[in-house]
């Protein structure tokens, strides 16, 4: 594995372009676009204020920068650096902004969720969508970009509207059987829309494209309910992570539960491999060095090394009892992700913050547990093969594949604490993000 030098970053705002050729990063009010292969700066754009959100258009020709405090969105062109566009929402304010799938319309959500404004870059026309609901995930596009679903709230009831993205005409409008709609997400094939209630009510609803209710699923009634939802890439499975520390898998034929995965504090099955991260301080005799070590050499010589060891089951994981009288308790399955080949599901139970659980979806059983020394901050699957990358807020990146797992130290001076990461679409590299810096990691073909 090779690593680039560190580059300045603010707000964790760093994105690969969809075509994989460019890397955009933000430093305060500046947008820096680099060539992915050489990391040479292609363009630097200066915005009117500190950038709070950045997003590429689907064709990688434009890039959107949102400044929510000012209610302004600026759009830049990579093909024509002199061209730019400014959208000012004025007194209506701005709380969210995103591209439409065609990369030629911008959807701005105003303060207090009064409306969504659809701005066309081609015709300069404006359309309005009323009553968008203020929820976790209120706008969802189908993967083919043909349809958009919007969660709405009017007259104290929840609704969903489905629009045709080519002309923004309303296709369907229907009410949902939810108390407080929290999120919506299309299946990757675009045939089914999942809608789920807030954590106070355990309910998942599955709708067809024409608004028919296909199925409703409820695991239990009174305790806190759903915390996370994820579709498998094949659209065959819907995984639901709950506050009761379980993941339930629904199938796409009957929409009934086929299994549930528990996350106990003790892993007892002999069929499960538990990889435990251990640190070892290197013993270096400085007297034997014939020269004073440089800062970089000293940091590599004296820094603690990390590796995985296989633990003998049963293994007791570090379990944190949640504080009952606080909002948003650290309890339940808060992170879910299917591998690109549909074979594996990675989960994190917030009660056991240092562990990642990897499930074999073909056999519906627990395959591996990765027990880290620090809290898992982020994990993401390689888009091309079953390989999981994760970070824990230190200067190491961790990789797992069916062949095994490894911990890799990011070289360099200073304390580069990785809190987020993102794969390149080719799977050959990924960007590692800390609070103030970014680094690109290049993987060799034989790396697990």
Automatic annotation (TrEMBL):
GO terms for cellular component: microtubule organizing center; MWP complex. It comes from the Eukaryota. InterPro entries: Centrosome-WD_assoc (IPR052778), Quino_amine_DH_bsu (IPR011044), WD40/YVTN_repeat-like_dom_sf (IPR015943), WD40_rpt (IPR001680). SMART domains: WD40. Gene3D superfamilies: YVTN repeat-like/Quinoprotein amine dehydrogenase (2.130.10.10). PANTHER family: WD REPEAT PROTEIN 8-RELATED (PTHR16220), WD REPEAT-CONTAINING PROTEIN WRAP73 (PTHR16220:SF0). This is WRP73 protein. It comes from Grallaria varia. The gene is Wrap73.
């Amino acid at each position: 594995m090779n690593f680039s030098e560190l580059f300045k970053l603010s707000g964790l705002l760093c994105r690969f372009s969809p075509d994989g050729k460019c890397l955009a990063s933000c430093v305060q009010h500046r947008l820096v676009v680099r060539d992915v292969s050489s990391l040479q700066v292609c363009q630097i754009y200066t915005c009117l204020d500190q950038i709070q959100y950045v997003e590429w258009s689907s064709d990688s020709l434009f890039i959107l920068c949102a400044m929510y405090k000012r209610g302004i969105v600026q759009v830049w062109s990579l093909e024509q650096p002199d061209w730019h566009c400014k959208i000012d929402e004025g007194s209506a304010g701005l709380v969210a902004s995103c591209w439409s799938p065609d990369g030629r319309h911008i959807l701005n959500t105003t303060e207090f969720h009064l409306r969504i404004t659809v701005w066309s870059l081609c015709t300069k026309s404006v359309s309005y969508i009323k009553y968008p609901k203020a929820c976790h995930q209120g706008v969802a596009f189908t993967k083919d970009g043909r349809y958009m679903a919007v969660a709405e709230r009017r007259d104290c009831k929840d609704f969903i509207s489905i629009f045709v993205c080519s002309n923004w005409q309303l296709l369907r409008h229907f009410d949902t059987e939810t108390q407080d709609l929290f999120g919506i997400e299309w299946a990757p094939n675009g045939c089914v829309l999942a809608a789920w209630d807030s954590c106070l009510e355990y309910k998942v609803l599955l709708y067809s494209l024409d608004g028919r209710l296909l199925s409703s699923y409820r695991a239990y009634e009174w305790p806190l309910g759903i915390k996370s939802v994820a579709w498998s890439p094949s659209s065959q499975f819907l995984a639901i992570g709950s506050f009761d520390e379980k993941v339930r898998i629904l199938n796409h034929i009957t929409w009934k539960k086929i299994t549930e995965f528990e996350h106990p504090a003790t892993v007892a099955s002999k069929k499960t491999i538990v990889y435990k991260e251990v640190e070892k301080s290197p013993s270096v005799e400085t007297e034997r060095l014939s020269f004073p070590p440089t800062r970089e050499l000293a940091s590599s010589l004296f820094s603690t090394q990390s590796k995985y060891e296989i633990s003998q089951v049963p293994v007791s994981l570090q379990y944190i009892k949640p504080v009952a009288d606080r909002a948003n308790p650290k309890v339940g399955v808060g992170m879910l992700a299917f591998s690109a080949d549909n074979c594996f599901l990675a989960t994190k139970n917030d009660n056991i913050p240092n562990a990642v659980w990897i499930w074999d979806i073909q056999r519906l059983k627990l395959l591996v547990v990765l027990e880290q020394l620090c809290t898992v901050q982020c994990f993401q699957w390689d888009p091309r093969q079953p390989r999981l990358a994760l970070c824990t807020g230190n200067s190491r990146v961790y990789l797992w594949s069916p062949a095994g797992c490894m911990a890799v130290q990011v070289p360099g001076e200073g304390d580069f604490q990785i809190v987020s990461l993102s794969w390149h679409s080719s799977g050959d590299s990924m960007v590692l993000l800390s609070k103030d810096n970014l680094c690109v990691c290049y993987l060799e073909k034989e790396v697990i």
